[in-house]
Every structure is written in structure tokens, then in C-alpha cells.
Automatic annotation (TrEMBL), chain A:
Gene3D superfamilies: 2.40.50.100, Nucleic acid-binding proteins (2.40.50.140), P-loop containing nucleotide triphosphate hydrolases (3.40.50.300). This is ABC transporter ATP-binding protein. One of its GO terms (molecular function) is ATP binding. The keyword ATP-binding applies. GO terms for cellular component: ATP-binding cassette (ABC) transporter complex. Residues 4-234 form the ABC transporter domain.
TrEMBL record, chain B:
It is a multi-pass membrane protein. Pfam families: BPD_transp_1. Keywords: Cell membrane, Membrane, Transmembrane, Transmembrane helix, Transport. This is ABC transporter permease. The lineage of its organism: Bacteria, Pseudomonadati, Pseudomonadota, Alphaproteobacteria, Rhodospirillales. Belongs to the binding-protein-dependent transport system permease family. CysTW subfamily. GO terms for biological process: transmembrane transport. The keyword RNA-binding does not apply. Residues 68-274 form the ABC transmembrane type-1 domain. The keyword Protease does not apply. It comes from the Bacteria.
Length: 345, 284
């Protein structure tokens, strides 16, 4: 098939397994975010795609061709490093022209290409500056321009925005996504920031402990998390564990009638804070009795912490829907069946 | 720790002892040497206090010029050879695992602790006709009969480079181990082969370090005294040998002192230059 295919990729360092057997298909033109906490194997995976590390097992296929043994310098992938790795002895323009110079492109063509790339990342007129003379955000753009200089088949970025302050990071996320859409280039970004992944990705690959937990669109990862790790890692959630009896789930504080439950045994469900309905009355279908322990009114939304049978649940409401409750007040928390996700155990 | 400039005379107390030692065993003898370099030599005797430039004027002789230029060329050759060998070696060393690096560094330090005499006689043996490496070359068929490779310029160079190599590695090591490894990785993803990335990124990114190291090794080799005598012919003798010869055997202390002062000034100037280069590196 066309696109990038990871076929049974494994990476071990001695007895430590950095990446467990991974199967992943990425069609052309997709923006993929590898998302997970530090040490989850996402950078290892990216480095193997780039050719900087060799997989212990498995193959990497690009458009059907096996590139597992192709050295990094023959893969023609652009990569942006977390440290940016701009060459300190070269000017901005020379940095961007480096891949062209290596390939023996003429000086005049190099100059034209540098101008075009600097315009692409909206940073014209800095070609003659030293790398140390430009700001962090500008360096970021230079690193992106340099990685794109060869019109690469794959664009790889390892935590590219982590060095920027929050405001600039948000802006760059949008810019990076728009750039990718304009160029239509297959892009893989490693990040630990779920907001960043939600902003940019067509496909979010959630990883933990060297394993891919879920690979799906951002909204599906949010709405239909595959397991409790994904549910907990992406946004806030309420996880409830209970015993199944007669098509209903018995949890602490009440019983929930839910579709899609296994016939018997135990199950964990996840329900997002904004899906919860808080009522002053505890009686009703799919309601759990609890007590409000804390109200955090942030203006844009209200966050309620509710003690349900000794476990804290979080409900979020918009100012319009704000339930009229005070701390210490007994309430009923309604879990709409459609928004409860039964997780893989 | 608080840092404030010393205010009272007592604040200088901690440096009094080292300062006194430095004064007594370095500044005073060096001052004496400068003084002697202007004294008048008495033929067949010793010297008497005077203020003459004649000792320095002798620098203009052809003989002195030849010895000086040979010393300089030898030191330059050693510097270039040592850095050329040590730079790639140190680069690969910094890419090894921590434990392996420590083993190598301990080994290099132990080479550094060898005395010049031992190095000299060891190489003299290795270059000899009956026990040396030429026998190995005969064994593998590269030579017809074992020959003596010493004394020769090559033997002198080999000996001093061997002595300077660990020193060069230790000078290069900090800069190379601080070099961000993602720089070479970035070069590789941008299409440079490992060898290409070494020459287009690692070497140019550290060019000031390379220049500073060249100067340091040059100064180190400029003072070599024993190895040229053990491994070379008289035409391979350096300025240091000439100074000793004048002082001890020709009893011409003023001329020896003048040459020594000159050598110290050249070395100081070069060390100053290397500090300047280092400062420029830090500023960028």
C-alpha cells in the first residue's frame, strides 16, 4: 500500500524493551501525532522511522519498499529535533542551504531556495544572521525550513515546540498545521502535550510503556478511548469500576443501565466531566447519589467536585448550564448511557 | 557561596603562600635569567654583570636561525599530526559508552605519566634494526631485511607525537563531549553521510577549539629536549638542546639565558593567542 507502514517493529536495549511489537499504517498526507508520557517509546519510534536507530525486529515500508536498512542520509526525510540542532558555525541561510550544498546544488539555486523557504515559514530577510542572533521562535522556523529544503517524503518532528513559551507554542501549533495542509506532506510529530496533538493531528497515536494504546482521530480518542490509560491521559475523565449484573453495572453509589456491556464479570467505564448532569435530586435513572465537595468557578466554565461513595467525580458545566449547588449539598449525578464508554480491561 | 572583591589587606591572606612560592621559585629565577641574558660573557671564564645586547644580537646568525626554524617546523609538524590523529579519535571516544570512555581516559593518563626518557628509549628500541618493528615488516613481507629507522626525523616526530597525543586528547575531550550529538544526526537526516557530516559539521563547529589545541600542542612540542637527542641526528636538535649545550658545555650562560627568554616569550605569546581564540569561541 502507499504510505508508511510499520510492520512488527520492536526496539530492545539489552533487556529493556523500548518499543513493543508495533503495527501502524500511515496514509500519505496525514498529520500524525505520537502522544504519550516521557519514556513511552514515542521518540524511539520516530528515530527508527528517521533511520537514526535500527529496529531490533520488524520492517519499515514506504510505498511498499522496505527501507529498514536504508541509512538515514539516503531516506530523504526532513527532521526537526527537540534541540533544533541548528549548526552554530553557519548563518541562518547556510543552515537552510546545508542539505542543498551537500547535494551539490549551485550557489544561485541555493540562494533562491533559501528565500523561498524563509518566505514559507514567514521569516524573510534573516538569511545573513547568525543563528545566535535570532529568537527562539525564529530558530524554530529556521529548523522547519531546513527540514523542508529537500521537499522530503516524510516530515518528522521530535517535540518541536517544547522550548517555546505557552503563547508562542499555541500559535506555532496552528501555523504548523496550516503549513502541513498547504504542502500536503505526511508529517509525524512526537509530543507529550495532548492539547498540541488535538490541535494538529489527523491521527493521534497514544503510547505508553512502549506500546501503542490507541490510534484514531483526535475526537475519537477523546470520545471513545480504548482503555483507562488513554481515557485518563487525554483530558479529564471519570473512571468507574463495577460488577455486571442483569445488563447493568453496579458501582459504588448506584446502578447504571448501559448498552454494550459484556454479559458478566467486571467492567470499567469512562465518562467525561462535561457529559455529567448534576441534579439536586438523587432519584432518577442512571443517577448516583453524592455530595458536592468543591466548586471551582473559572468564569468560562464551572468545575464541580462531587464525592460519590468516597470517590471523587468531576463535572464540568458551562455558565449557562450551571447547576445551582453549594459545597456540602447532596446531589444526584446523572451519567447519560450514550456518553459512557466501556473500556477494554 | 558569596563572591565579593577583597576589601582589606587581610582578605588576600589565602593566596599569600602560593604567591610567595611563585615569587621565590619562579619570578626570582626568571628575573635572574633575564638579567643574565644581558650580562657580558668572559671567554674561557664565566660572565660579569653588564648591560649588553650582544647575546640577543647572536640570534641573527644563520646557525641560530636554522635551529630556531627547525624547532618551529618540528613543533608545527607535531601539532598538526597530533590534532589530525587525536580529533577523530576523541570524537569517536565521546560517542562510546561512559565506562569505555573512562577506561580509555585512564589509559591515556597513564601514557601521559611516562617519563620522556622511557618514551625515548622505548621508541629507540622499537626503531632499532635487531629488535624493532622493521622485523615485523620483514615478517609480513613489506621489507627485505630489518633496518634501523632511528635516528631520523620520522623517529623524532613519532616520539613527540606519541608523547603529545594523550595531552591533545585531553585538551579536545571537553569540547567534543559537549558537542550536541543531534548536530551530526541532523546532518545525516539532511543527506550527509557519517564521514561527510564529520567534515561539514563537527570539524567546522569546533574550528576555534582546533586552532586553540594546535597552539597548545605547538607550545608543548616547542620545549621538547630529550626526544630529539635520543631519536634524531644533530640536525634534528631543537632550540632547547642548543640552550642546554650553550649553558652546560660551552659555559656561555648569557647566550643560553637570552635564548631561554626568547623561547618563553614565544610560548607566552602563543598561549595568549590560544586564550584569545578560546574567548572568541565562548562569546559566539
Amino acid at each position: 500500500m502507499s504510505g508508511l507502514v510499520l510492520d512488527g517493529l520492536v526496539k530492545r536495549y539489552g533487556s529493556f524493551t523500548a518499543l513493543q511489537r508495533t503495527e501502524l499504517s500511515i496514509p500519505h498526507g496525514q498529520f500524525v501525532c505520537l502522544l504519550g508520557p516521557s519514556g513511552c517509546g514515542k521518540t524511539t519510534l520516530l528515530r527508527m522511522v528517521a533511520g537514526l536507530d535500527n529496529p531490533t525486529e520488524g520492517r519499515i515500508l514506504l510505498d511498499g519498499a522496505d527501507i529498514t536498512q536504508t541509512p538515514a542520509h539516503q531516506r530523504n526525510f526532513g527532521m526537526v529535533f527537540q534541540s533544533l540542532a541548528l549548526f552554530p558555525h553557519l548563518t541562518v541561510g547556510e543552515n537552510i542551504a546545508y542539505p542543498l550544498r551537500i547535494r551539490g546544488v549551485s550557489k544561485a539555486d541555493q540562494g533562491r531556495e533559501v528565500e523561498r523557504l524563509l518566505a514559507l515559514v514567514r521569516l524573510p530577510g534573516v538569511a545573513d544572521r547568525a543563528v545566535s542572533q535570532i529568537s527562539g521562535g525564529q530558530r524554530q522556523r529556521v529548523a522547519i525550513a531546513r527540514a523542508l529544503a529537500l521537499s522530503p517524503k516524510l516530515f518528522l518532528l521530535d517535540e518541536p515546540l517544547s522550548a517555546l513559551d505557552a503563547k508562542l507554542r499555541e500559535q506555532m501549533q496552528i501555523e504548523l498545521k496550516l503549513l502541513q495542509e498547504r504542502l500536503g506532506i505526511t508529517t509525524i510529530v512526537v509530543t507529550h502535550d495532548q492539547r498540541e496533538a488535538m490541535t494538529m493531528a489527523d491521527l493521534v497515536v497514544v503510547m505508553s510503556q512502549g506500546r501503542v494504546r490507541q490510534a484514531a482521530s483526535p475526537i475519537e480518542v477523546y470520545r471513545r478511548p480504548a482503555d483507562s490509560f488513554v481515557a485518563d491521559f487525554i483530558g479529564m475523565t471519570n473512571l468507574l469500576r463495577g460488577r455486571i449484573a442483569a445488563g447493568a453495572l453496579a458501582v459504588d453509589g448506584g446502578t447504571l443501565a448501559l448498552p454494550g456491556l459484556p454479559p458478566a464479570g467486571e467492567a470499567t467505564i469512562s465518562v467525561r466531566p462535561e457529559e455529567l448532569r448534576v441534579h439536586r435530586d438523587a432519584a432518577g435513572p442512571n443517577r448516583l447519589a453524592g455530595t458536592v465537595s468543591f466548586v471551582r468557578d473559572l468564569g468560562s466554565h464551572v468545575e464541580l467536585r462531587i464525592d460519590v461513595a468516597g470517590r471523587e467525580m468531576i463535572a464540568v458545566a458551562t455558565p449557562q448550564d450551571r447547576p445551582d449547588v453549594q459545597p456540602g449539598q447532596p446531589v444526584g449525578v446523572e451519567l447519560p448511557p450514550a456518553s459512557c464508554v466501556v473500556l477494554e480491561s | 557561596m558569596t563572591r565579593h572583591p577583597p576589601r582589606r589587606i587581610l582578605d588576600y591572606g589565602p593566596i599569600a603562600f602560593p604567591a610567595a612560592m611563585l615569587l621565590l621559585f619562579f619570578a626570582v629565577p626568571f628575573g635572574l635569567m633575564i638579567a643574565v641574558s644581558f650580562f657580558q660573557r668572559i671567554e674561557g671564564g664565566f660572565y660579569e654583570p653588564a648591560f649588553v645586547w650582544s647575546n640577543y644580537a647572536r640570534f641573527l646568525s644563520v646557525f641560530f636561525g636554522r635551529v630556531l626554524s627547525f624547532s618551529m617546523m618540528l613543533a608545527a609538524g607535531v601539532a598538526v599530526l597530533s590534532v589530525t590523529l587525536a580529533f577523530p579519535f576523541t570524537f569517536l571516544l565521546t560517542r562510546l559508552r561512559r565506562r569505555a570512555q573512562v577506561v580509555w581516559l585512564v589509559f591515556l593518563l597513564s601514557v601521559l605519566s611516562l617519563s620522556e626518557v622511557i618514551i625515548g628509549f622505548a621508541w629507540a628500541t622499537l626503531f632499532s634494526a635487531n629488535a624493532g618493528i622493521s622485523n615485523l615488516l620483514v615478517m609480513v613481507g613489506l621489507l627485505d631485511a630489518p633496518t634501523s629507522l632511528s635516528p631520523s626525523l620520522g623517529a623524532v616526530l613519532t616520539g613527540i607525537v606519541y608523547q603529545a597525543f594523550p595531552y591533545t586528547v585531553l585538551v579536545l575531550y571537553p569540547a567534543l563531549s559537549r558537542l550536541d550529538p543531534t548536530l551530526t544526526e541532523a546532518a545525516r537526516t539532511l543527506g550527509a553521510s557519517p564521514l561527510n557530516s564529520f567534515f561539514t559539521v563537527v570539524v567546522p563547529a569546533l574550528r576555534n577549539t582546533v586552532v586553540a589545541t594546535l597552539i597548545m600542542v605547538f607550545v608543548f612540542a616547542l620545549g621538547s629536549y630529550l626526544l630529539p637527542q635520543l631519536l634524531g641526528r644533530p640536525q634534528h636538535w631543537t632550540l632547547s638542546v642548543l640552550i642546554t649545550d650553550q649553558a652546560l658545555f660551552q659555559a656561555n650562560m648569557p647566550f643560553a639565558a637570552a635564548m631561554a627568554v626568547f623561547l618563553v616569550l614565544v610560548s607566552l605569546a602563543l598561549v595568549g593567542l590560544s586564550l584569545l581564540v578560546g574567548k572568541k569561541e565562548n562569546a559566539s
